[in-house]
Amino acid sequence: MTLGVFMFYLISATILFFSVLTIASRKMLRAAIYLLFVLVATAGFYFLLNYQFLAGVQLTLYAGGIVVLIIFSILLTSHISHKFERPAAWKLWMGLSVLVAGSGTALWVLLLQPFSKNPAVKEVPVTMHLIGNQLLSLEKNGYVLPFELISILLLAAMVAAIVVAKKENN
Amino acid sequence: MILDIYSFSTLTSSIDNSLHNMMSPWMATLTEFVLVGIVFLLFYALLGLFLVYLERKVCAVIQNRIGPNRVGRWGIFQTFADFIKLLMKELITIKHADKFLFNLAPFIVIIASFMAMAALPFAKGLQAIDFNIGIFYVIAVSSLGVVGILIAGWSSNSKYSLIGAMRSGAQIISYELSVGLSLLAIVIFSGSMQLSTIVESQADGWWIFKGHIPAFIAFVLYLITATAEINRGPFDLAEAESELTAGFHTEYSGIKFAFFFLAEYMNMFIVSAIAATLFLGGWMPFHIGGWEGFNQIMDYIPSILWFFGKTFVVIYIIMWFKWTFPRLRIDQMLNLEWKYLLPLNLMNTVIISFVVLMGLYFK
């Protein structure tokens, strides 16, 4: 077993462990923190794949951005003594059976699929220049349209947020 | 170019080779992990203690006092004594607090700053990891620290802590944008995010000189926003001794408090090191393009001295801020960011893109 394979299993185990804790925890902020661990471990996967840019994006956007937003809203709304109630037994069993069925199907499909490395696909080092050019490229496989659409969506969301937050003049 | 006798790459590669000769590659890598970890831990702790000492001395000089002067000559062992005192203090556990998160919070804060330090180029050939997204990585991992502050405030189950954490969260999230944008200036100039490439690109002059006015504006903006980002005065509203007792770490004592304290000072070191690396040339000696003789004389000063010299100049400026300016109110601080600094930063980014496209900087 090489170090890379060992790290793969270590990171996978971390992700699995904390994912289960995220949904099983009865305290809301703890669940959010477990989610943070899951997202950080996912960034570890990208580092392992040598895709450092995506790992950086994962850390800034998910771990530093979204989880902080979630924590912020929990801080504002929930009290420290608050705990979720235990789920009813039938809900628990229903959930577990769905879990078994779902993961069984996924595993069955995955294990039947013969994975092999496609020799036609070459490994390209993903540099910042490549990402920047591709993001604003009008050529085939260019991302300029989605990029512009997302920026318009973001602008609309920001304007909406300002309108909602604005105090009315009485 | 820079003299080879000062390069650390011969030293590190010889250690690497001898380790690989002695044991299997597996074990060699593992041993290197442990060695690098120990070196960083020692460096982190000692530098943290030194920065606390420096802060007290600088504060004393500015306020016309002598500062710590009893423990050791010039009081240099004062912070060690303080540290031992902190270690021996009782760790208070609070009733009705979320104990798991309460104990976890200091570690998240300190791990975030520890991870950021891994990518810093300390000298020629002395850098733990050289990512091709270097500066982006530093911004990404340092944004994790705010999570620790937020859960520290919430899990203490105290109103002072919660208000401090909310303020700190609002402050760090807002100022992160401006920090990123002002660093983007140098990324545009050098065309790379890799820290080693950015340092190499300054071999014929530091970016603050080569990029003239827009680079200088970016540097000033970075200093202001980075000071806010690390929760230091005049932006220390998260701690606010006068109205919030101690902000988010009110309920912490002993070594857990020391963790927050140490992380704060190390964050100051990290932002200063980033400023030194991006704007002031990092470990690159003071070079002027074309002056060969002058450049060669400058090369005789080791690169590690250049790096720490520049970093400590920036640290001194940040300390100077704290003991000179009056504190801001929370609404004033958020206004400053969203209404002044962020638009200025955005405009500056556009100007820099124009300057680089037109080739209007010194090459």
Verbal overview:
The complex is a heterodimer of chains A (170) and B (363). With 170 residues, chain A is mainly α. Chain A folds into two domains: 1-84, Up-down Bundle (Four Helix Bundle (Hemerythrin (Met), subunit A)); 124-170, no CATH class. Chain A has helices at 3-24, 28-48, 52-77, 89-112, 128-135, 144-165. In chain A, α1 packs antiparallel against α2 (28-48) and α2 packs antiparallel against α3. Chain B has one domain. In chain B, 45% of the residues are buried. Chain B contains 15 helices and no strands. With 363 residues, chain B is an all-alpha fold. In chain B, 69% of the residues lie in helices and 0% in strands. Classes of the chains: A mainly alpha (170), B mainly alpha (363). The A-B interface holds A 3, 27, 29-30, 33, 36, 40, 52-53, 55-57, 59-60, 63-65, 67-68, 71-72, 74-76, 80-81, 125, 127-129 and B 26, 29, 96-98, 100-101, 104, 131-133, 136-137, 139-141, 143-144, 146-147, 150-151, 153-155, 157, 162, 165-166, 169, 173, 176, 191-193.
Name of the top-level CATH class of the largest domain in chain A: Mainly Alpha
Shape of chain A: extended
Count of the domains of chain B: 1
CATH architecture of the largest domain in chain A: Up-down Bundle
> Strand fraction band of chain B?
under 5%
**Total beta strands of chain B:** 0
Uncertain spans of chain B, ≥5 residues at pLDDT below 50?
A: none
Q: What would the CATH topology of the largest domain in chain A be?
A: Four Helix Bundle (Hemerythrin (Met), subunit A)
General form of chain B: globular
- Which sheet architecture does the biggest sheet of chain A show? none
Low confidence ranges of chain A? none
Mean pLDDT of chain A: 86
Give the number of DSSP strands of chain A: 0
Please identify the structural class of chain B as seen in this structure.
mainly alpha
